[in-house]
Design brief:
By secondary structure, this protein is α/β, with parallel strands linked by helices. Among the domains are: about 170 residues, Isoleucyl-tRNA Synthetase, domain 2 (Alpha-Beta Complex); about 140 residues, Orthogonal Bundle (Isoleucyl-tRNA Synthetase, Domain 1), CATH 1.10.730.10. Helices cover about 45% and strands about 20% of the residues. It is built from 22 helices and 25 strands. The strands form nine sheets. Strands 6-5-14-16 form a four-stranded antiparallel beta sheet. It has a four-stranded mixed beta sheet with strand order 10-11-9-12, with helices on one face. Helix 1 crosses helix 22 and helix 9 packs across helix 15. The radius of gyration is 32 Å and the shape is elongated. The chain starts with 6 loop residues before the first helix and ends in a 12-residue tail after the last helix. The protein binds one RNA strand through strand 8, strand 12, strand 13, helix 10 and strand 25.
RNA sequence: GGGCGCGUAGCUCAGUUGGUCAGAGCAGUCGGCUUACAUCCGGAAGGUCGGGGGUUCGAAUCCCUCCGCGCCCACCA
């Protein structure tokens, strides 16, 4: 053995050996309870970043631990088609080549994107291997695989038939830049210094009513003014008619509880086509919906002389015109929060659109119950509160995306009469059902719809496959807390709905990886640490330890190169301890076959205590704690004390002492390697191959 | 507006149900190329555990309050 652990030479060889040996693929044994993690699929086209490296490390530790316990262990890897991000990215790529998706058309665009994405996926998968991920590549899945897509259609169809999916015209969030609707979760609110404009609306027959708005241009689409029914100031005006300035439209004054008497003037202009709350007021009072803002964020024909203006231009123009008419009471600075697209960062428009929705209420109830009754646990527990808070106030979920890339909504319309439609697996079936030529819905599904089915579509559901029967419900879902609503909540709802069972027993939330200065790692900040570069420099074991140490479920964590380097030293320490022990000529015997010295007995007793402690910590998913226990013990007790203490015996002539020492050192080393293996799989396996029989990856956890 | 979390050595953080809990890594300091490892070994230094109050025989650990940070959800014109 060399005096240094040569990770560059050994890591990739060991990985290949593991993969070839079949150690990653579990054998189904009905007598044993399996352990299963479905990997949160990284974007197929994305290079792995440091956050991926953290989750891979944590999951791999869990998986290797359970494999060593002898449980049939499945870690199923996957790749995500990441609808919105991919389409935006690929369109940009095309633009760079002087092309656009419209040149290609839908089918060709998707075909090219698919080819490119499958290529990229190999890079991503190669990086998972570099990190040591012991996942079962024979079972890998892609979110656009044919069987997965079929399961998506199957689910959509069933939900539609049971009234859980409906089509409706609602005010939705619209991203003008990417030309698609967004779910509420894809919208972030940003504080913006704007203006609050007070406008006089003249009453027919004399008088006036003053309304306040941050968006004067939407008045073009006003179809009412609303006041609170309890508001004495306006009691007389309810039921009267207002002349909408600039448009000269007669609109009613209605009374509605939604209006807050204490805010502004207590009177609200109502624009049912461009505000979700106004939409609901409109429903209650039967108001007309006039769409004055188009999908291009410009004023429509319905906006009269303002047609064609950008909303921002119209805002000024309307205010000016009102001022000329003497109807502008005041414009004052006003800080308010404005909805923006999370992805493109531009302000979103709220406008009326026909979309497909999931009726979430009936799905949420059992999903709340499952967590309340402890069938699904979350780590840390505080996320259960966050989950309840959201689930109890959940609103219907817009699942239509106006994108080409993704699962196309399986709805077919009769070409001659689009009011007739059906949900079907393909056009032929739909044609038979509707008795005529059909066209498919243009929209695709929100990525999170298919992602919500991931824990079981990956296992072959809805077919009654062996994997599904055996591994489902899965054991652990390990993911980031930032997607608890996007993903975790949806998997629980859809899992219970589709399979009648929980999708997983435990949700383990990892934290966000930050840099030394506690900043989020992001490309724009230029503080990215490339995990693959770190592996190159210090080895995968060092990166894994550096990332994992000091983390706790739900807690953000820090990385810096120093920390990684420190653990490269640890990997080397393991290597050298083993090297020292391998240099002793006596052939090791089992500890129960040797007359142990009193001291060695004490060392073994102490070590058995460590085994108990680490096992307990691992079972609690206190992973970093277990890692720390092992680190401290191995370095500062085993190396600094036990080994040092053995030297006089090893170099002396007393055979009894010598064999006692050799047996003790080997016993502790061997079992330490097993326990350390989930954390630092490469160096431990490399050592094992030097000293012992078989493969460490399938050894047995000490008792 | 509602909810959640954090504040422990210079830095990054561990401290599970209150009693070897005052710790680790890195940085730093002093001394060592000792035949497993200088990617190492040994020694010393370093914190009134954010402030204040309370419960207790005893609190970094439980309760209250204040200060300072951060996150999530909803969105009020």
């Amino acid at each position: 053995m060399d005096s240094k652990f040569d990770f560059r030479q050994l890591e990739s060889k060991l990985y290949q050996k593991w993969e070839k040996s079949g150690a990653f693929s579990p054998k189904i044994d009905k007598k044993k309870k399996p352990f299963c993690i479905i990997m949160p699929p990284p974007n197929a086209y994305d290079k792995l970043h440091i956050g991926h490296a953290l989750f891979v490390t944590l999951e791999d530790i869990m998986v290797r631990y359970h494999r060593l316990l002898g449980e049939p262990t499945l870690w199923l890897p996957g790749a995500d088609h990441a609808a919105t991000a991919s389409q935006i990215f690929f369109e940009q790529k095309l633009r760079g080549e002087g092309r656009s998706r419209h040149d290609l058309g839908r089918d060709k665009f998707n075909a090219e994107l698919m080819t490119w994405m499958l290529e990229q996926r190999e890079t991503m998968e190669g990086q998972l291997k570099v990190l040591g991920a012991s996942c079962d590549w024979t079972r890998k899945k892609f979110t656009l695989d044919e069987d997965v897509s079929r399961a998506v259609v199957y689910t959509f169809k069933r939900m539609y038939e049971e009234g859980l999916i409906y089509r409706g015209k609602r005010v939705i969030n619209w991203s003008p830049k990417s030309q698609t609707g967004l779910s509420d979760l894809e919208v972030i609110y940003q504080e913006v210094e704007g203006e609050l404009t007070l406008i006089k609306y003249p009453l027919k027959g004399g008088g006036e009513i003053v309304v306040a708005t941050t968006r004067p241009e939407t008045m073009l689409g006003d179809t009412a003014v609303a006041v609170n029914p309890k508001d004495k100031r306006y009691k007389e005006m309810v039921g009267k008619t207002v002349i909408l300035p600039l448009m000269n439209r007669e609109i009613p004054v209605v009374a509605d509880d939604y209006v807050d008497m204490k805010f502004g003037t207590g009177a609200v202009k109502v624009t049912p086509a461009h505000d979700p709350n106004d939409f609901e007021i409109g429903q209650r009072h039967n108001l007309e919906q006039i769409e004055v803002i188009g999908k291009d964020a410009r004023i429509t024909e319905a906006g009269g002389k303002y047609a064609g203006m950008k909303v921002t231009e119209a805002r000024e123009s309307v205010a000016e015109d009102l001022d000329k008419l003497g109807l502008l009471v005041e414009r004052k600075k006003f800080v308010h929060s404005v909805p923006h697209s999370e992805r493109t960062k531009e302000p979103v428009e709220q406008l009326l659109s026909e979309q497909w929705f999931v009726k979430v209420g009936p799905l949420a109830k059992p999903a709340i119950e499952a967590v309340k009754r402890g069938k699904i646990k979350m780590l840390p527990k505080r996320f259960e509160k966050i989950y309840f808070n959201w689930m109890e106030n959940i609103r219907d979920w817009n699942i239509s995306r106006q994108l080409w890339w993704g699962h196309r909504i399986p709805v077919y319309y009769l070409a001659d009469d689009k009011s007739k439609y059906t949900v079907a697996f393909d056009a032929k079936v739909a044609e038979q059902e509707l008795g005529g030529k059909v066209v498919q819905e243009e929209d695709t599904l929100d990525t999170w719809f298919s992602s919500g089915l991931w824990p079981f579509t990956t296992l072959g559901w809805p077919e009654k496959s062996q994997d599904f029967e055996y591994f489902y419900p899965t054991t652990v879902m390990e993911t980031g807390h930032e997607i608890i609503f996007f993903w975790v909540a949806r998997m629980i709802m859809l899992g219970l709905y589709c399979t009648g069972e929980i999708p997983f027993e435990l949700v383990y939330f990892n934290g966000i990886v930050r840099d030394k200065e506690n900043q989020k790692i992001s490309r724009s900040k230029g503080n990215v640490i490339d995990p693959i570069e770190m592996v190159d420099k210090y080895g995968a074991d060092a990166l894994r330890m550096g990332l994992m140490m000091g983390t706790a479920a739900g807690q953000d964590t820090h990385v810096d190169e120093d920390k990684i380097r420190a653990h490269r030293n640890f990997a080397n320490k393991i290597w050298n301890a083993a090297r020292f022990i391998s240099m002793q000529d006596a052939s090791p015997q089992a500890i129960d076959k040797v007359d142990l010295t009193k001291e060695d007995k004490a060392f073994i007793k102490e070590f058995n205590g460590i085994v108990k402690q680490v096992t307990k910590e691992m079972n609690k998913y206190a992973i970093a704690q277990a890692g720390d226990t092992l680190y401290q013990y191995f370095w500062h007790q085993f190396c600094d004390v036990v080994i040092e203490n053995s030297k006089p015996a090893l170099y002396g002539d007393d055979d009894r002492q010598k064999s006692s020492a050799v047996a003790t050192l080997n016993y502790i080393l061997k079992n330490s390697l097993v326990m350390l293996h989930p954390f630092v799989p490469f160096v431990t396996e490399a050592v094992w191959q030097e000293l012992y029989e078989g493969d460490l990856i399938v050894a047995s956890w000490p008792k």
